Amino acid sequence: MRREGSPWSGLWAVVAKEAADHLTSARMRFLEVLVGLAAIGAVYAATQTIRESEGSDPFLFLTLFTTAKDPLPSFVSFLGFLVPLAAIALGFDAINTEHTRRTLSRIVAQPIYRDALLMGKFLAALLTLGILLAVLWLVVIGLGLIFLGLPPSGEEVARAFTFWAATLFYGGVWLALSMMFSVLFRQPATSALAALAIWLIFAFFWPIIAQLCAQSMVPEGAPRIIAQAYQAIYEPMFARVSPNYLFGEATLALLNPATRSLGPIFMSQLQGALMGAPIPFGQSVLLIWPHFTGLIAGTILLFTATYVAFQRQEIRA
Amino acid sequence: MSSPVIEAKGLTKRYGRHVAVDHLDLAIKEGEVFGLLGPNGAGKTTTILMIMGLTDVTEGTVRVLGLDPARQPLAVKRHIGYMPDSVGFYDNLTARENLGYTGRLAGLPRALLEQRIAETLARVDLSEVARQKVKTFSRGMRQRLGLADALLKSPKVVILDEPTSGLDPHATQEFLELIRALKHDGITVILSSHMLEKVQVICDRVALFNAGRMALCGSVTELGRQVLGGGHHILVEARGPGLERALVAVPGIIRVRREGDDRYVLECDSDIRPAVAATISGAGGQLLSLGIRQASLESVYTRYFEEASHAA
């Protein structure tokens, strides 16, 4: 059955209202403090390490993002943890609180489609996340300028910027997931717990599960060298189901220009390669293009599931 | 005035095997106040949601101003103001901001929106608290804000779902006054309620719902005549022996009910108070008071379902 009228009408009203809500909420303050502290801590530790080293790396600025110093993890691994949490915090109560506050029926009684409400909420949260990450990114670069006393090169800026985009896509997956739970579960607490459970699985258990799955692919009675090859081929394949792993690989390729491959390669493929020499920015992007595609596809899939569930839902409480 | 504002034919909604609304036929005229009355779970809200295009129709058709809510929901919703049952607002926003959001969703241009917000808030007497957060509002104020919200897009039809539930008698009275004022502006009002007595005074016509079916439809007096026969209840307070027997014999009296030592309720087909007075004094009784009660929806309703269950 065809319906008349644009599904976009009212979209920007929703985006503006939701983004304003996010940016002024106490939850956001909390996230800002948390992420800000993590950034400053990580960057400070990284600059300490970098100063001690010789400083011959042509991409010194990028090591700011990736260098860890005990007991502090690197900025990138901080983000790997915190971005899903921030995304879940922005999305877990998107739809169900409209139910419990009894505002939903009033909103959908306006001349808009439900599409606009869902899409608007998603875009607003993504915008908020984007702003949060952009601020962080600028803080890190600013701190880097102060501590290291040297400006980043053009390529470093390009790589760092692509890293920002990768982080945003990574957040998008978690945002879509938490919004899906906000449609499926009426209680915000249940929805938050469900999203956090998935996050826990991918952050801590998935590497183990991927390893076990890869082991199960090894043919019985295979010699050790073959078993190792199987393990090396299949483990990343299973691991790449996890957005955390995809994000990890993407950042590795982007921020460490010497990365040539994400997975096992044959010695023959390395013939003539200058080991440890950086590859051009375009090649790095090519390397992680599938990861970008995967993250975006995951977001779209989850969003579609959310959309279908929301369309079928009865409005009355 | 020719074609009805809202017309439903054979409207049916099923949830699995449960039938929420069963072959409803309805025609609501322009400018009338129409009451959908009945107990909770009788299908009133489901009917409203189908009129709004907020839930799919299983069977039958519904037209709002000639539009199909399932296919042209945006056009329909542009003309209907809706106040849901126990309306909710964003507590951390002010009354103005809440209405502003609604207005932007409805696509009102900024200048017009400002003007409408001021107008509607004045209409429901909330201008003074316009800049206060909604979390400080009482139940009655929220309900009035809900009405302002429904009126914001200056709709042709306003649908109010249980507008008076949870309000104290004074707030209820105020709210009913507001609804009456809408009728003056030529807005068609549909309201649903389970409180029959409260709303009967403001409804031009009512439909009584029960278990998904529309049991009765018409004006309150019509229904009274239809169901209660005469539709007149005469209240008598008189002292004396054997009055009940004497009263039954009066022509025109259908039933005599004793409601206390000296109180009687007479159901009759017309106003025969003089005859009743004469009979009482003729039988040697002392007449203390004599009054007449208009047919009430509640008595219509109880009586109708009493009969319906007897018939079954």
Task: Describe the model.
The complex is a heterodimer of chains A (317) and B (312). Chain A is mainly α. Chain A has helices at 11-24, 26-52, 60-66, 75-91, 96-100, 104-108, 114-148, 154-184, 188-217, 224-239, 243-255, 281-312. Chain A is built from 12 helices and no strands. In chain A, helix 4 (75-91) packs across helix 9 (188-217) and helix 11 packs antiparallel against helix 12. The radius of gyration of chain A is 22 Å and the shape is globular. The radius of gyration of chain B is 23 Å and the shape is elongated. Chain B is built from 11 helices and 13 strands. In chain B, helix 3 packs across helix 4 and helix 4 crosses helix 5 (139-151). Chain B has a 6-stranded mixed β-sheet, sandwiched between helices. A 4-stranded antiparallel β-sheet of chain B has the order 11-12-10-13. In chain B, strands 2-1-4 form a 3-stranded antiparallel β-sheet, covered by helices on one side. By secondary structure, chain B is α/β, with parallel strands linked by helices. Chain B has 2 domains: 6-218, P-loop containing nucleotide triphosphate hydrolases (Rossmann fold, 3-Layer(aba) Sandwich), CATH 3.40.50; 232-294, 2-Layer Sandwich (Alpha-Beta Plaits). The chains are: A mainly alpha (317), B alpha/beta (312). Chain A binds chain B through residues 1-6, 9-10, 13-14, 16-17, 21, 101-103, 105-113, 314-316, and chain B through 45-46, 49, 52, 54-55, 70-75, 77-78, 80, 82-84, 86-92, 101-102, 104-107, 146, 149, 153.
